[in-house]
Design goal:
Elements (H helix, E strand, L loop, with lengths): L4 E6 L3 H11 L4 E6 L2 H10 L4 E4 L8 H9 L6 E6 L14 E5 L3 H14 L9
Length: 128
């Protein structure tokens, strides 16, 4: 399948990472998970990603720092800060397609992914 929605999920807690990846996987999606922002940054340099989903509190760089770096070259990229941290309205300054969701709200995450997938053309694998 060439029109997969490529999702990169960043979470340092192994149990949460495995559970969320399992919930995110479905036909039409390719989900890659990283345990820290630095590994995620390397992945972002090598592979096409349509949506970055990241925890905020990570060892090393924070998820917010990772998002800022990735958004520097294209502020229209999609980022979901999926965290226990309460952002209120602070994410609006990061970019027009940055959203924050509580980590435990999987229904809202799935709903948002459905909305996003309708607005973007997925990056074909190998398109760099």
């Amino acid at each position: 399948m060439s029109n997969l929605l490529n999702i990169l999920y960043v979470e340092d807690n192994n149990d949460i990472r495995e559970m969320v990846v399992e919930l995110l996987e479905c036909p039409g999606r390719r989900v890659v998970a990283c345990a820290d922002a630095e590994a995620a940054w390397l992945h972002l340099q090598r592979e096409p990603v349509d949506i970055l989903i990241t925890d905020v509190n990570l060892p090393g760089w924070t998820g917010t720092e990772l998002a800022r770096r990735w958004l520097e070259s294209d502020a229209r990229r999609w980022v979901i800060l999926f965290s226990g941290y309460d952002f209120k309205s602070k994410v609006t300054g990061l970019g027009p397609n940055v959203r924050a969701l509580p980590k435990e709200d999987f229904d809202q995450l799935e709903s948002l992914l459905g909305e996003i997938s309708k607005t973007i053309q997925p990056c074909p694998l190998g398109d760099r």
